[in-house]
Amino acid sequence: MVRALVLVLALTLSVIPTRASEIKVAGVAIDVKNFDVEPTKSLGGNDRGPALAVLRDGTVLMGGGNRGGSIFAWNESSQELKLLGEIMSKRERIQDSRFAITDIAVLSENKSIANLLISFPRLTPSRCVEVVVFRATYDRVKNSLKKNERWFRSNPCVAISAVQHAAGRMEVINSRSAYLTVGDLGFDELPNRAKRGDLGSVFQISKSKVTRISQGHRNQQGIVLFNGKDLLVSEHGPRGGDEINLVEQGIDYGWPFVTYGAPYSQGDYVIPGKTGTHEGFREPLKQWNPSIAPTELVQVPTGKFGKYSGGLAMGTLRQASLVFMRYENGKVSDTEIVNVGARIRDLEVLPDQRLIASTDDGRLMIFSSPTN
């Protein structure tokens, strides 16, 4: 059955033409290619583009699909899409795009095997939701996926009626560990630090150990270890107050006590203590009002994308854009928002220094910059 589906997908996508366009970043013309990978988007509620990971040979792994838990491999030259396997069972989700793979991280790889971490929000038999991370093995010879041991499970388990803001983004440290973001899951007792447990935090995880790095986050949809040193996250605020934060050990970043955003209504799951301020808590490096709904962060390749060479690029949902920023000495500057006409769900850097994004309408977008 799986082999038949792989064949159907491969034949379907191999005949879909590439659409090319152009945008300008810092006055530099950037070529944009679009590829239709609609079978990889998750359905139910708002459609959700797949999570991405890139292997050294340029193979793109995608997590999502109609059931939310499918892993695909895609090759640009052939435009062939292969279904590798399922990481989530039917009983671990409902038909809602929020129950989908949130990230794929590559711990190590060789020509035959890739060791992965895969994160997703999981529905338990008690009808509550937790964020989990499993290690998985991608057999590149057999084109198969094996689910291995669990590395992380969040606590408390949050009622399904409230679930949102899973986060679940990862940044690899080495072949044995990674950073992980866990959002607030829409938990209505967030002000009680004891009850909120793991929610709204950044962790360092390994097979045998979990260490909390920071707390007081809302929905961290992007994470990058800049120059292998500065750990940066992008996160959604409520009705504005979207942030980029420099994550440091033991710091509380203030949610839900302070935000530069505004409350939705008195009926929301939690009402922030103070709005328009971060008084008493760590200030973000950058904040946006109104909201842009930031997603993944990546470091821009050196020598590419004009003055943003070596800086930051970030996807957005609400603005349907890429955001380019300079980052030096712990400060964000020279922000440029570039409309790309699609909600960017995930963003990665290809081995040849192009940027690749997944979109909520079921596309891959590849951005090529001339050398500076």
Number of helices: 2
The CATH topology of the domain at 102-292 turns out to be Neuraminidase
Helix/sheet category: mainly beta
Q: Cα-atom Rg, whole angstroms?
A: 19 Å
Shape: globular
Task: State the oligomer.
Answer: single chain
The top-level CATH class of the domain at 102-292 is: Mainly Beta
CATH superfamily of the domain at 102-292: TolB, C-terminal domain
User: Helix coverage percent of residues?
Assistant: under 10%
Low-pLDDT stretches: 1-15
The CA-CA distance between the termini, in Å, is 48 Å
Note the main sheet: 5 strands, antiparallel
- Give the strand tally: 29
Q: What is the annotated CATH architecture of the domain at 102-292?
A: 6 Propeller
Mean pLDDT: 94
- Proportion in β-strands: over 45%
Order of the strands making up the biggest sheet: 1-2-29-28-27
List keywords for this structure.
29 strands, 372 residues, mainly beta, 5-stranded antiparallel sheet, Neuraminidase, disordered N terminus
What is this structure, in a nutshell?
With 372 residues, this protein is mainly beta.
Structure description:
The chain is mainly β and 372 residues long. The protein has a domain at 102-292: 6 Propeller (Neuraminidase), CATH 2.120.10.30. Helices cover 5% and strands 48% of the residues. It has two helices and 29 strands. A five-stranded antiparallel beta sheet has the order 1-2-29-28-27, with no helix packed on it. Strands 7, 8, 9, 10 and 11 form a five-stranded antiparallel beta sheet that branches. Strand 5 (70-75) and strand 6 form a beta hairpin. The model is unreliable at 1-15 (pLDDT under 50).
